[in-house]
C-alpha cells in the first residue's frame, strides 16, 4: 500500500487535510480522537467510591488525565484511607500538571510508599522550581529508584546541590557515565556543565566530549559556545556555532545563539533549575520511540515545571498530547512556545495541524500560507506543501516543491530526498509517471534505506504492472527494514497478488490486516485475495469491513461493485482494475 507523503502519518494514499496533518510525521492520526469524560445514566455512577473509581479508569482509558484526577479525587473523598486510590490520583494529577494536587497527593503517596520514585521526582522538581534546594536534596538523596529514574534522579540531585551552593557535592551526586547506559551522554554533558560552574579546568575537555557524544548536539554546542564566550573567546565560540550549523542548517536554537553573539549580548549561565529541566528533556528525548513513552511524558511535565519557558520541552510534550487526542492541552503548549525563535516556526505549524484536526482545513492552510510568507524558510514551505498534497492540490504542491529544489540547487546545496519524494508523489498523482519515477529513484539514491520510500516506489511499480520484479524486490527490502509496518506488509501481499501467487498474498495480507486493522485499503486487498483462493464468504466480510473504515470515494465505489458481482475470473480483467 502506498503511504502518505513525508511529514504525514502513513495511513492511506489519499486522505483529507484534517487527518493527514492532525499528528504530523511522528504520530499516528488514528489516535487523534478527542477524549470525552464518561457519562453516567443512573445513580450508580460517581456518587459511590466504586462508581467514581470506574469513571476515573474510563477517563484513564480515554487518556484524559484531567477527568481522571477529578474522579479519583472524588473516590478519595469517600474512601480517604485507600492507598491505591492515592497513588492513582497522584499519577493522574501529575499527568494533568495540576501541581497543587500533585504536591498534596505526592506527599500522601510517600507516607505509605516512601520509595515511590515518581512521587519523589515530582516533589523534588516542584521544590527546585520554588528554589527550595534543601527540600529537593532530601527527597532525592539516598532515594531507591529503578535504573532509569536513578540516573535522572542523580542529575536532579546534582543540580539541587548546585542550587544550594554545594558544587563539590553536586559533582559527587552524578551517576558514573559507565553506569548510565542509555543516558551516559546526558550524564556527561551535565558533568561538564557542573565542572564549568565549579571552575574546574577540565570542563572544556568534558564539553568537547559532550559535543561528540550527546544525542542533542545543538544543546551541547550551545553550552560549549557559551563557555568559550564567558572566557573572552568569542571567535572560538562563533566557530562552534557555525560548525553546528554546517552539520544542521535547520538548528534554529544555535542560529539564535549566533545572533545573540553578533548582537554583543553576554552569554548567560544556565540556572540550576533550568539545567535540571534540560536533563529531564534530554532523558525524555532519549526515551521517545522506545517502550518508555509514559516515563518520557512524566519527565517532560517535570521539565516544564522546572522551567516554564523551556520551549523544546513544551513542544515535545505537545506532540505527545496530540497523539493522545488532548488537542486543547497541546494547543496551550504550542502557543506558549510560539515566540521562541528556536521553535516558533514549528509551533505555528503544529497549531495549524490542530486546526486541521478540528476540521478547519481552510483555516489551517491559510495559517501555513501566512507562515511561509512570514518565515520564508524550507521548513514552512514543506509544511505548506504537505497541506496542499493533503487537499490534493497536486499541481500547486509540485510547483512549490520544485521551487524549493531549484533554490537548493542555486545555492549549491544538495537535493533533499524528502523534497524529491514529496514531488514524486505529486507527479504520480497527476499521472506523470516518468518524472515521478525519476524523482523516486533520485530520492532512493540519497536515502537508500528508508522503508517508506522503497515501499512507495515498489508499490507504484507493482500497482501499474510494470517492472514487477524490481518493484517486488524494493518492497522486500522495505519489509526487511520495517517488518511490523502494516502498510508495507500490505504492499508485499499485493505484489504476490499481482504475480498470481494468491496463497502467499493471503498470508501476507492477513498479517498486514492484523498489524493495521483500521485501514480500508488493506482489508479490501485481503478480500480480493480471499476471493481468488475460493474463500468468498470471507472476502465479502472483508469488503464489508472496508466500507466501515471510511474508504476514499473511488475505493468505496469499487468495493460496492465487488460486493454486488464479486471479482471476474482471474485473467478476464486486469488486476489493476479491481481496485480502481
Can you characterise this structure?
The chain is 70% helix and 0% strand. With 580 residues, the protein is an all-alpha fold. The longest helix has 17 residues, at 147-163. The protein has a domain at 449-580: Tetratricopeptide repeat domain (Serine Threonine Protein Phosphatase 5, Tetratricopeptide repeat). The protein is built from 32 helices and no strands.
Per-chain topology:
Elements: H1 17-20, H2 49-61, H3 65-78, H4 83-95, H5 99-112, H6 117-129, H7 133-140, H8 147-163, H9 167-173, H10 177-180, H11 184-197, H12 203-213, H13 217-230, H14 234-247, H15 252-262, H16 272-287, H17 293-306, H18 311-323, H19 327-337, H20 344-357, H21 361-375, H22 378-390, H23 394-410, H24 417-429, H25 433-446, H26 451-464, H27 468-481, H28 486-498, H29 502-515, H30 520-532, H31 536-547, H32 553-565
Amino acid at each position: 500500500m502506498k503511504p502518505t507523503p513525508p511529514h504525514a502519518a502513513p495511513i492511506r494514499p489519499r486522505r483529507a487535510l484534517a487527518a493527514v496533518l492532525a499528528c504530523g510525521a511522528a504520530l499516528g492520526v488514528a489516535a487523534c480522537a478527542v477524549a470525552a469524560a464518561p457519562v453516567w445514566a443512573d445513580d450508580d455512577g460517581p456518587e459511590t467510591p466504586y462508581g467514581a473509581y470506574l469513571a476515573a479508569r474510563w477517563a484513564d482509558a480515554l487518556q484524559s488525565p484531567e477527568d481522571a484526577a477529578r474522579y479519583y479525587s472524588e473516590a478519595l473523598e469517600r474512601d480517604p484511607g485507600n492507598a491505591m486510590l492515592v497513588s492513582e490520583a497522584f499519577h493522574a494529577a501529575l499527568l494533568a500538571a495540576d501541581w497543587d494536587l500533585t504536591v498534596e497527593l505526592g506527599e500522601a503517596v510517600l507516607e505509605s510508599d516512601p520509595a515511590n520514585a515518581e512521587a519523589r521526582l515530582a516533589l523534588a522538581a516542584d521544590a527546585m522550581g520554588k528554589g527550595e534546594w534543601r527540600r529537593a536534596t532530601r527527597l532525592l538523596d539516598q532515594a531507591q529508584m529503578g535504573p532509569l529514574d536513578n540516573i535522572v534522579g542523580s542529575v536532579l540531585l546534582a543540580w539541587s546541590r548546585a542550587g544550594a551552593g554545594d558544587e563539590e557535592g553536586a559533582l559527587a551526586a552524578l551517576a558514573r557515565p559507565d553506569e548510565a547506559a542509555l543516558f551516559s551522554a546526558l550524564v556527561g554533558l551535565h558533568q561538564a556543565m557542573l565542572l564549568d560552574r565549579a571552575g574546574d579546568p577540565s570542563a572544556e575537555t568534558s564539553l568537547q566530549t559532550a559535543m561528540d557524544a550527546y544525542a542533542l548536539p545543538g544543546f551541547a554546542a550551545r553550552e560549549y559556545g557559551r563557555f568559550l564566550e564567558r572566557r573572552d573567546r568569542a571567535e572560538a565560540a562563533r566557530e562552534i556555532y557555525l560548525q553546528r550549523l554546517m552539520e544542521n542548517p535547520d538548528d534554529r536554537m544555535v542560529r539564535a545563539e549566533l545572533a545573540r553573539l553578533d548582537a554583543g549580548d553576554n552569554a548567560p549561565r544556565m540556572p540550576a533549575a533550568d539545567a535540571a529541566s534540560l536533563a529531564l528533556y534530554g532523558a525524555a528525548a532519549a526515551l521517545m520511540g522506545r517502550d518508555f513513552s509514559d516515563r518520557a511524558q512524566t519527565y517532560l511535565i517535570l521539565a516544564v515545571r522546572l522551567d516554564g519557558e523551556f520551549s523544546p520541552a513544551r513542544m515535545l510534550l505537545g506532540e505527545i498530547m496530540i497523539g493522545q487526542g488532548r488537542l486543547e492541552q497541546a494547543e496551550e503548549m504550542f502557543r506558549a512556545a510560539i515566540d521562541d525563535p528556536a521553535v516558533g516556526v514549528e509551533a505555528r505549524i503544529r497549531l495549524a495541524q490542530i486546526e486541521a484536526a478540528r476540521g478547519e482545513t481552510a483555516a489551517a492552510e491559510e495559517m501555513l500560507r501566512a507562515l511561509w510568507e512570514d518565515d520564508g524558510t524550507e521548513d514552512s514551505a514543506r509544511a505548506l506543501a504537505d497541506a496542499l498534497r493533503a487537499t490534493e492540490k497536486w499541481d500547486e504542491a509540485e510547483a512549490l516543491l520544485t521551487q524549493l529544489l531549484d533554490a537548493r540547487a542555486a545555492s549549491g546545496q544538495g537535493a533533499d530526498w524528502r523534497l524529491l519524494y514529496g514531488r514524486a508523489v505529486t507527479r504520480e498523482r497527476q499521472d506523470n509517471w516518468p518524472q515521478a519515477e525519476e524523482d523516486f529513484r533520485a530520492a532512493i539514491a540519497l536515502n537508500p534505506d528508508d522503508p517508506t520510500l522503497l515501499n512507495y516506489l515498489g508499490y507504484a511499480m507493482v500497482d501499474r504492472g510494470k517492472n514487477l520484479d524490481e518493484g517486488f524486490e524494493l518492497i522486500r527490502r522495505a519489509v526487511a527494514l520495517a517488518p511490523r509496518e502494516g502498510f508495507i506488509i500490505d504492499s508485499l501481499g499485493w505484489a504476490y497478488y499481482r504475480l498470481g501467487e494468491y496463497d502467499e498474498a493471503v498470508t501476507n495480507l492477513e498479517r498486514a490486516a492484523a498489524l493495521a486493522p483500521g485501514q480500508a485499503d488493506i482489508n479490501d486487498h485481503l478480500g480480493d485475495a480471499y476471493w481468488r483462493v475460493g474463500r468468498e464468504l470471507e472476502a465479502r466480510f472483508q469488503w464489508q469491513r472496508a466500507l466501515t473504515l471510511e474508504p476514499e470515494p473511488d475505493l468505496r465505489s469499487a468495493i460496492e461493485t465487488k460486493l454486488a458481482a464479486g471479482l471476474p475470473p482471474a485473467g478476464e480483467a486486469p488486476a489493476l482494475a479491481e481496485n480502481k
